[in-house]
Amino acid sequence: MDQPAMKHLLSIADLDRGELEDLLHLAGEFAEVLERPIPKVPTLRGKTVATVFFEASTRTRLSFERAAKALSADVMTFAPGTSSVIKGESLKDTALTIRATGADLLVVRHEAVGAAARVASWLDCPVINGGDGAHQHPTQALLDSLTIRQRFGKLDGLRIGIVGDVRNSRVARSDIDAFTLLGANVTLIAPPTLLPRDLEGFPVSISHSLDEVIADLDIVYLLRIQMERGSGPGLPSLPEYVSRYGIDRGRLERMSPDAVVMHPGPINRGVEIAAYVADDPRALILDQVRNGVAVRMAVLFRLLGAS
Fold first, then answer.
1. 3.30.530.20, 3.40.630.30, 3.40.50.1370, 3.40.1170.20: which CATH number matches 12-136+289-303?
2. Active-site annotation holder among 60, 94, 139, 147
3. N or C: which end of the chain has fewer CB within 10 A?
4. Which is catalytic among the residues 8, 47, 61, 109?
5. 137 catalytic, yes or no?
6. pTM for the complete prediction?
7. 77 an active-site residue?
8. What is the CB neighbour count within 10 angstroms for residue 215?
9. How do 260-262 and 159-163 pair as beta strands?
């Protein structure tokens, strides 16, 4: 039976487990396409994808553009610093203009919570949330889930610790939704000042000590301290944070032999992760980056009407 077409991808909360697993299965197939001598298929020839990023990005922007081109779609890249935004053009008029130039799908990253959803309400084409403030980053959660499944074969029953600046992390919120939907047990590990003020409804456990739980975890998922979102006042001090929550050689050695380290990037070597750990084979950071292309191919494929 054909899979019903998705309309947008704004939040992991918009997916049920079947839809999530379908996207992961499809991403796995596209990962195989990317291993071919000519890593390209004509599936979306004639379609145009616009990346509309009001915030800086390396991994998300490049992987969406790479994914679109691997599907033979054309790509338009929007940069606010060289656009009419600096003349006062609104988000709505920017989105309508990009659609009018021929974009069939917009990938929107914006510092305001709900920005991608607003753009979706104004347009008659699919919209992907490439990150909205500290709210959601659904394709990151998909690529993280795919990376874990490739390593462990499943998420059901795995013990995942998300460490660091959970309060300001859209990645953490999306990953909590995806990991728990797929059956994992999630523990948030951070000082109280870096946890959400209201944890009601979060299907997670809480620990303020990484050392107390690290030996029991299958995955240690590290987060960057997001100074740009006001994390600074929540830190007792940077050296104290590093000593209590950073992953160094000693903590890596105390982890289970099969356990792995993940990070959405950009990483800050010497803060949340030591250089030794970042370069260790048990760190799946570059696997996550590679899987980002396949996952975004799957999402583009679904949203542009293929079944």
1. 3.40.50.1370
2. 60
3. N
4. 109
5. yes
6. 0.94
7. no
8. 11
9. unpaired
